[in-house]
């Protein structure tokens, strides 16, 4: 394995993963309008994705034992691209739900394989590099949202936009595939071990859960918030600033991990999410809302990569299995988060509903402190 070429290849797959997700998410307001559905109905439709993710998670252990991670990763990435095109071409709710189901399944399997490769590749480097992979994922989101903004301005139909994006990303995936790391199939620690629960890993899962509420909710509802609450014509503005600041934070994450203890990173992240949401909710105007979303982007950016990095050092499980376990908690966030916001919005208004993200962000602080306390008691090194 050539670590340099492998790092570039893994980075490209993070980039594509981010582009695919943001391409769909940034078009949600258009899809919602085309299907003529309200917030509650949109929330119900989004339930399809976490249900599908459960299937991907259930198969993770077998996949990790049976294949090098590059194999499920390329299949998942091509499947994502097919699903992305299908979303754009959907003309009814049944077709859209089926496309979302297919996309979520491929996102889950691809995400686990991709993050496992990143954590294993980190072990080949003396300096932290994990944050750079997640920065590429966020940068992919920026590219996708920027492209969506251009497509909206040029009045390019959603179907054409998503289809060509899918074709392009599929081609790049196939070109980059040969350079992915090989020989990383888990030979041990890839089965759930019965007995006393691993408390540090459980708390890392809770952190992923809280982060998924905040991060996933911003992906799914930021465009709708700027369109319906802030009343901005180019409604991708909030999502764009969120993704830009998320990318900046992730580019700086490796330096932060080298210089600042991880406990401080979680504390700052928690307070940033709360501050940003409150600013956007209390002052729902273009400039303060964009500033608020920027702060939220920087706050949410570092939680997931830092948590995956800590999980990769689990003494009980392989890196892939540990990541798979804590990823299962994000499904709960995906299952209840977007639909809950939809139902709350229908009852109380979308502006009030965003306070839910502030509450979840605030909880990151005490849970992270409990994790480091548990690690200290277990005699582990965080």
**Share in helix:** over 70%
| Number of E-state strands | 0
Count of distinct structural domains:
1
SS summary, helix count: 17
Mean pLDDT: 84
Termini separation (Å)?
28 Å
Strand content: under 5%
Looking at the structure, the CATH topology is Growth Hormone, Chain: A
Overall form:
globular
Order of helices and strands: HHHHHHHHHHHHHHHHH
What does the model show?
This protein has 382 residues and is mainly α. It has one domain (3-180, 195-378): MFS general substrate transporter like domains (Growth Hormone, Chain: A, Up-down Bundle), CATH 1.20.1250.20. It has helices at residues 3-25, 28-35, 39-46, 48-58, 60-66, 70-89, 93-122, 130-153, 158-176, 199-228, 237-259, 262-282, 286-301, 303-311, 319-348, 350-353, 355-378. α6 packs antiparallel against α7. The longest helix has 30 residues, at 93-122. The radius of gyration is 19 Å and the shape is globular.
Short recap of the structure:
The chain is mainly alpha-helical. It has 17 helices and no strands.
Topology summary:
Blueprint: H1 3-25, H2 28-35, H3 39-46, H4 48-58, H5 60-66, H6 70-89, H7 93-122, H8 130-153, H9 158-176, H10 199-228, H11 237-259, H12 262-282, H13 286-301, H14 303-311, H15 319-348, H16 350-353, H17 355-378
């Amino acid at each position: 394995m050539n670590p340099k070429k492998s790092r570039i290849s893994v980075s490209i797959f993070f980039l594509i993963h981010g582009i695919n997700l943001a391409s769909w998410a940034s078009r949600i307001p258009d899809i919602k309008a085309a299907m003529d559905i309200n917030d509650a109905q949109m929330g119900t439709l989004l339930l399809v994705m976490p249900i599908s993710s459960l299937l991907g998670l259930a198969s993770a252990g077998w996949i990790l034992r049976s294949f090098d991670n590059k194999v499920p990763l390329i299949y998942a990435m091509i499947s994502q691209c097919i699903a992305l095109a299908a979303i754009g071409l959907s003309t009814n709710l049944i077709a859209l739900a089926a496309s979302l189901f297919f996309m979520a399944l491929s996102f889950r399997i691809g995400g686990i394989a991709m993050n496992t490769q990143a954590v294993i590749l980190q072990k080949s480097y003396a300096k932290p590099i994990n944050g750079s992979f997640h920065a590429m994922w966020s940068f992919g989101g920026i590219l996708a949202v920027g492209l969506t903004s251009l497509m909206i301005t040029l009045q390019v139909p959603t179907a054409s936009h998503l289809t060509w994006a899918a074709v392009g990303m599929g081609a790049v995936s196939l070109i980059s595939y040969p350079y992915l790391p090989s020989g990383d199939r888990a030979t041990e620690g890839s089965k759930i071990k019965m007995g006393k629960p691993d408390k540090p890993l459980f708390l890392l899962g809770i952190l992923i859960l809280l982060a998924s509420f905040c991060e996933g909710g911003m992906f799914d509802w930021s465009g709708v918030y700027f369109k319906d609450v802030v009343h901005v014509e180019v409604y991708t503005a909030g999502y764009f600033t969120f993704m830009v600041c998320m990318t900046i934070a992730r580019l700086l994450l490796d330096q932060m991990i080298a210089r600042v203890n991880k406990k401080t990173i979680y504390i700052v992240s928690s307070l940033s999410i709360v501050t940003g949401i409150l600013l956007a909710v209390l002052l729902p105007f273009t400039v303060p809302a964009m500033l608020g979303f920027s702060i939220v982007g920087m706050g949410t950016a570092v939680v997931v990569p830092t948590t995956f990095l800590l999980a990769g050092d689990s003494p009980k499980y392989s890196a892939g299995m540990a990541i798979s376990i804590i990823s299962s908690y994000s499904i709960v966030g995906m299952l209840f988060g977007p639909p809950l916001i939809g139902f709350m919005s229908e009852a109380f208004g979308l502006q009030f509903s965003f306070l839910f993200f502030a509450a979840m962000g605030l909880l990151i602080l005490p849970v992270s402190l409990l994790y480091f306390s548990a690690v200290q008691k277990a005699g582990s090194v965080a």
